[in-house]
Amino acid sequence: MSLLERILEQKRSELPGLRRARLPAPPTRPPISLRRAPGAPLHLICEIKKRSPSAGPLDLTLSVSERARVYAQGGASMLSVLCDQVFFDGGFADLLAAREGTSLPLLAKEFIIDESQLDHAAAYGASAALLIVRCLEGDSLPRLVAAAKSRGLTALVEVTTEEESARALDAGATHIGVNARDLDTLVMDASRAERVLRALPPEVVVAHFSGIRDAAGVTQVASGPAHAALIGEALMRRSDPLPLLQELRSAAR
Description:
The chain is of the alpha/beta class. Helices cover 39% and strands 17% of the residues. The strands form 2 sheets. An 8-stranded parallel beta barrel has the order 1-4-5-6-7-8-9-10, surrounded by 7 helices. It has a two-stranded antiparallel sheet with strand order 2-3. The longest helix has 18 residues, at 3-20.
């Protein structure tokens, strides 16, 4: 069983508890704004995650709220918050903790297969929710894109191939993230990601996911069609991510 299959099996086991849970009243959720005007800097989506299956434990010197505050100070346009507990040591409560540190919009980064997860994302303060095409079969993708919209959430749909891009567009996605890492093999392929990004229509807001570690990586992505780039482990390995984030922000221009 692949890592992704194990994650999805775990998600299915969590659904009964999520459906029974009492949810808090949602806090104010600012709209996301990632479209990049001609000549404008690349938007940076900065991630908060405590560990990953591939990298292991990451730096926990800063609390979630403290790290959110630093990311905002460093010029992030949006924060991505891992909401999976078993594989990433996160949770929906981390969205609320991030909200304490910043007024920036938050992305609930979770392996979403059911509307109950969207209910939690909205209740805990997310402005957007990640939907991964590879995790969704049949009519699940268009149904969840519509369900996200009905809850005031922007669906940021993750793809890895042109075929998955076509599914995302058919489902009504207006925001698409192209992952340079294949979720089945965990192999990174920046050239494939760039090809998929360039094939997307101009009316779609597009983001580059995974693999950016330094200013040179940001410069390369900024020279292409992406409106935004997600920066994860490079920042999460730093006890003080501000100096690196400032370098990345300069490169985004």
